[in-house]
C-alpha cells in the first residue's frame, strides 16, 4: 500500500468528547445549565433525551477507554465538569467522588498509552451561578472559574500536560445571549458582548493561575479551543461583501483568536462596539492580564464555513442591537451540505485556517481539536457482520486531511487531528439525533461497536498517514 499523505512525527491522531456529553449525571451533586434546562423543558431536546445517561462514561470509562485505544488513537480530549468536581463553587471545596472519577479517567487514558488533553469548560456553567450572578455576565463568576481551574491543576497537572480553558466560548455568546439555542436563551447584544469579554478574561486569568502556580514547570502547556468558521464573502471583488465578511470574522473568530494569541481584541471590533455603545466594561488591570497571558497552543474546531453578503435590507432593531446589523448570511448556490446537521461541507477551509494561523498568528502550535460529520439513522448502514459501514465519514475525513496536509507542507505548525468524537455521544439539544463517533452506541443496551471508520483510523494512525 502506498501512502501519499505522511504527517509530521508524533502527530496526534485522536478524538474529543466532553464531560457533560459522555458521562451522564450519575453521582453528580450539582447541576449545569443543561441539566437544569432538561428538567424544565425536556421537549427542547431531540426525542426528549437529556444528559442523564449520555454514553454512560461515568460507569463504563474503563471499557470505553480500552475501545478508544483499540482503534489506535494516541490522544484523547475530554472535559472536567465543574458541577462534578466542585461541591461548593464559592470556596471551591471538592466533591471527593468527582476527584476520584477524574483521577481514574486520567490514569486509565495514560495507562492505555494515550495523551490526555483536559478541558475545563464545555458550555456547562453551574446553573446556580447563573441564578445567583447571571453566569458569565459576572466577573465574580470569572473568579470562581479560576478557583475551579486551580483545583483541577492542583489535582491532575502531575499527569495532564495539555490543558485548555474553554471549548468554543463564542458558542456561549451566540447560544445563550444572541440566537437562543442554549438556555437561558437571552437576546441581548450588549450583555452578549460583556459575556464575550468576560470569557476572554476568564481564560487569561486561568492561564495566569496556571503559570503563577508553576503547573507549567514540568512541560505543562495551556491553550484554548476555538471553533473557527472563516467568513467567505459572496463576491470577493465586491467591496461591500468583503467588508461584511471582515466584520463577521471579527465577531465570530477574531474576538477570541486575537486576545488568546496576541493578547488584544481586534481594534476595528472595539471601535465598532464603542460607536454602537455596546462595548464591555473593562479595567486597565484586566486588559493587562489578557495581554500578558496568551496561550501556549491552540485547538481549532472546524465544521463549516460562514458565507456572508452585504446587508440587503435595513437592520431590524426590534430585538435591539445585534452583530447581524453588518452582514446577511449567504446561501451559496450549489454548496455541498450535510443535510442531517444542515452544515456546509467545505474541506478547503482547513487549509485557509492553517495559512491564516501561519501568517497572522505567529504560526503558533495548533491542532484540529474537532472535525466531524453528524449523520442521522446510521443503523441503516449496519452490514452483515454487525457494524456500521460509514464510508461517507471516511471520505469526509480524507478530504479534510488532504487540505491539512497541504498546509503542513507549506509550513503550517499543526501537530494533530482529533475527530469529534470517539464514541457517539449526547449532543446538546440535538441529543442523539446525529451520530459522530468512530464507535457506535446502541442507546437501549449501551452496547458499543466499532464502525468502519474506527477500523480505518487505526490504519491511518499506525501509518501516520494514508
Ligand atoms: C461542537 C461542540 C461539540 C459537539 C459538536 C457537534 O460545536 O464542541 O460539543 O456537540 O459541535 O455539534 P452538534 O452536537 O451541535 O451536532
Q: How is the topology of this model organized?
A:
Layout: E1 12-16, H1 19-22, H2 33-40, H3 57-70, E2 75-79, H4 82-85, E3 86-88, E4 93-94, H5 96-111, E5 115-119, H6 127-133, H7 139-156, E6 162-167, H8 169-177, H9 189-212, E7 221-227, E8 231-233, H10 239-262, H11 267-275, H12 284-292, E9 297-301, E10 306-309, E11 328-329, E12 337-338, E13 343-344, H13 348-360, E14 366-370, E15 375-376, H14 391-409, E16 414-420, E17 434-435, E18 439-442, E19 447-450, H15 452-463
Parallel strand pairs: 1-2, 1-16, 2-5, 5-6, 6-7, 7-9, 8-10, 9-14, 14-16
Antiparallel strand pairs: 3-4, 10-11, 12-13, 15-17, 18-19
Helix pairs in contact: 3-5, 7-9, 8-9, 9-10, 9-12, 13-14
The structure holds 6-O-phosphono-beta-D-galactopyranose.
Amino acid at each position: 500500500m502506498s501512502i501519499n499523505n505522511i504527517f509530521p512525527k508524533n502527530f496526534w491522531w485522536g478524538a474529543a468528547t466532553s464531560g457533560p456529553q459522555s458521562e451522564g449525571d450519575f453521582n453528580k451533586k450539582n447541576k449545569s445549565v443543561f441539566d437544569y434546562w432538561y428538567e424544565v423543558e425536556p421537549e427542547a431536546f431531540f426525542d426528549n433525551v437529556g444528559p442523564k445517561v449520555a454514553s454512560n462514561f461515568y460507569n463504563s470509562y474503563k471499557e470505553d477507554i480500552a475501545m478508544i485505544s483499540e482503534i489506535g488513537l494516541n490522544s484523547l480530549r475530554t472535559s472536567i465538569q465543574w458541577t462534578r468536581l466542585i461541591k461548593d463553587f464559592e470556596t471551591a471545596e471538592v466533591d471527593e467522588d468527582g476527584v476520584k472519577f477524574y483521577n481514574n479517567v486520567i490514569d486509565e487514558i495514560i495507562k492505555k498509552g494515550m495523551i490526555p488533553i483536559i478541558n475545563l469548560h464545555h458550555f456547562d456553567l453551574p446553573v446556580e451561578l447563573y441564578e445567583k450572578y447571571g453566569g458569565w455576565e459576572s466577573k465574580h463568576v470569572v473568579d470562581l472559574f479560576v478557583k475551579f481551574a486551580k483545583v483541577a491543576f492542583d489535582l491532575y497537572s502531575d499527569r495532564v500536560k495539555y490543558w485548555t480553558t474553554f471549548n468554543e466560548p463564542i458558542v456561549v455568546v451566540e447560544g445563550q445571549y444572541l440566537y437562543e439555542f442554549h438556555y437561558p436563551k437571552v437576546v441581548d447584544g450588549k450583555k452578549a458582548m460583556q459575556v464575550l469579554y468576560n470569557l476572554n478574561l476568564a481564560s487569561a486569568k486561568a492561564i495566569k493561575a496556571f503559570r503563577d502556580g508553576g503547573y507549567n514547570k514540568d512541560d505543562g502547556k495551556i491553550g484554548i479551543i476555538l471553533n473557527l468558521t472563516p467568513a467567505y464573502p459572496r463576491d470577493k471583488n465586491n467591496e461591500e461583501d468583503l467588508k461584511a465578511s471582515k466584520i463577521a470574522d471579527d465577531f465570530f473568530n477574531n474576538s477570541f483568536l486575537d486576545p488568546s494569541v496576541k493578547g488584544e481584541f481586534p481594534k476595528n471590533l472595539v471601535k465598532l462596539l464603542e460607536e454602537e455603545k455596546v462595548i464591555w466594561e473593562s479595567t486597565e488591570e484586566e486588559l493587562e492580564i489578557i495581554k500578558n497571558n496568551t496561550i501556549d497552543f491552540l485547538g481549532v474546531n472546524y465544521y463549516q464555513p460562514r458565507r456572508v453578503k452585504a446587508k440587503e435590507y435595513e437592520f431590524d432593531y426590534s430585538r435591539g442591537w445585534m452583530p447581524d446589523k453588518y452582514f446577511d448570511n449567504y446561501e451559496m448556490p450549489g454548496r455541498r451540505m450535510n443535510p442531517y446537521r444542515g452544515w456546509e461541507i467545505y474541506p478547503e477551509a482547513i487549509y485557509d485556517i492553517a495559512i491564516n494561523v501561519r501568517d497572522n498568528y505567529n504560526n503558533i502550535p495548533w491542532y484540529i481539536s474537532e472535525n466531524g460529520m453528524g449523520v442521522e439513522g446510521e443503523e441503516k448502514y449496519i452490514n452483515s457482520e454487525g457494524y456500521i459501514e460509514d464510508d461517507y465519514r471516511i471520505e469526509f475525513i480524507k478530504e479534510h486531511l488532504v487540505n491539512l496536509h497541504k498546509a503542513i507542507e507549506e509550513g503550517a505548525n499543526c501537530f494533530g487531528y482529533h475527530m469529534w468524537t470517539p464514541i457517539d455521544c449526547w449532543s446538546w439539544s440535538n441529543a442523539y439525533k446525529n451520530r459522530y463517533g468512530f464507535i457506535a452506541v446502541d442507546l437501549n443496551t449501551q452496547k458499543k461497536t466499532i464502525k468502519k471508520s474506527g477500523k480505518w483510523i487505526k490504519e491511518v494512525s499506525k501509518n501516520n498517514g494514508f
